[in-house]
Amino acid sequence: MPPRSRYTEQCVKSREQVARISGATCRLRLRCPIRCLAALVAAEGDRMSAVITYANDARRCFCQIKFDSGERVLISIAGMPKPSIKVMRLVLAGLVPMGNIWEHNLTIAGSLDNYVGQLLKMFPPDADASMHPLDIIRDLLLKCSSIEEARRTLLERQSQLLREQHARAD
């Protein structure tokens, strides 16, 4: 049995919190731990954006988020030969991608080294554990309540990186 990820550990903690707050037992499976987090927030009476689908393995790397506004986005990470990260608006109940709201790719970065370096600066992993960029971006966007807020958040990170690069160049 593989070791538990930090994501799974959070689910286990959330189950315990749900049980304490609501007096009920969380019966959700570990297959979708974010549902446990959503149950925790619902038990506390708050709203939050939620993960609808998540896959991060050797062949797939994507996550679909539904915001409080009802809008949905798809975070898609492509590997070699053309690495890129795209955040796309989804329509028709999350079935059809309808344009990018943010993208970072090799063309924007200029080279593979720049691409990796820029990603690490825009989305630094936690010091406690190394996290995949998909998890970091997912956690960042889950704090947003709409596509517009998510777009602003991502563009702010990108703009800050560009300002730092220009300041070093001067």
Describe the structure in your own words:
Helix content is 45%, strand content 22%. It is of the alpha+beta class. Mean pLDDT is 77; it is low at 21-34 and 39-45.
List the keywords.
alpha+beta; globular; 5-stranded antiparallel sheet
User: Sheet bearing the most strands, described?
Assistant: 5 strands, antiparallel
Classify the helix fraction into a percent range: 40-55%
The count of strands amounts to 5
Order of helices and strands: HHEEEEEHHHH
State mean pLDDT (0 to 100 scale).
77
Integer tally of domains: 2
Count of DSSP helices? 6
Percentage of residues in strands: 15-25%
| Strand order in space, largest sheet | 1-2-3-4-5
Shape: globular
Radius of gyration: 17 Å
Helix-and-strand structural type: alpha+beta
Q: Span from first to last CA?
A: 52 Å
- Please mark out the parts with pLDDT under 50 across 5 or more consecutive residues, or reply none: 21-34, 39-45
Write the layout of secondary structure elements.
Blueprint: H1 6-22, H2 34-44, E1 50-56, E2 61-66, E3 72-78, E4 84-91, E5 96-105, H3 106-109, H4 112-122, H5 133-142, H6 147-169
Antiparallel strand pairs: 1-2, 2-3, 3-4, 4-5
Helix pairs in contact: 1-2
Summarize the structure.
This protein has six helices and five strands; from the N terminus they run ααβββββαααα.
